[in-house]
Amino acid sequence: MLKIGSHVSMSGDDMYLGSVKEALSYKETAFMIYTGAPQNTRRKSLDRMKIDEALAYMETQGIDPKTDVVVHAPYIMNLANPDPEKRAFAADFLTQELIRSSKMHATQIVLHPGSAVGKDRPQAIIWIAEGLNDVIQRTKDLTIRIALETMAGKGNEVGKTFEELKQIIDKVNDKSRVSVCFDTCHTHDAGYDIKNDFDGVIKHFDEVVGKSYISVFHVNDSKNEKGAAKDRHENFGFGYIGFDALLKVIYHKDFENIPKILETPFIEKKAPYLEEIQMIRNKTFDKDLKEKVANKS
Ligand code: FE
Ligand code: FE
Ligand code: ZN
Question: In this structure, are residues 187 and 201 in contact, taking their beta carbons and an 8 Å threshold?
Answer without folding.
Answer: yes
